[in-house]
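From the pipeline queue, job 12 of 40. The input is one protein chain; the requested action is below.

Action: predict structure.
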Amino acid sequence: MLDKSVKIVVGADHFGLPLKDALRDYLRELGYQVDDLGVTSQDPVDYPDMGATVAEAVGAGAYTRGILVCGTGAGMAIVANKVPGVRAVCVNDPYTAERAVASNNAQIITFGSQVVAAPVAKKYVDIWLESEFQGGRSAPKVAKIDNLDEKYRKAMEDA
């Protein structure tokens, strides 16, 4: 189980607002410190804007884990994975919720509010919180991901 002193950040576009709010409240009920970076209304917001805000906060080390919600979860995962130092996984089943951390050491999970209902998403969050990076055979693969991240980050800095 994730240490309750760990800070978790959540964010969503307008499609994901109700699910994001439900997950935020659920995490707080469990005793986690959760910061909500928005959105707070149904006014249309482009998911890349919210996804980048949350992923940049995680990538900078301000948060250990984050949750992003849009219509499908796919767009938020794509955006989050563009941010250096971030590994994000779209979760639509229990196995992926567990392996997101256990195999991939992902700091962010994403959900689609039009794909996963709140009660199911809460169960997936429970699995995610209980999972730990297992290292082992996955450690060299995650190291390769980190090396790719560093390679392209350095190439951009040198450009």
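Job complete. The first helix runs from residue 17 to 29.
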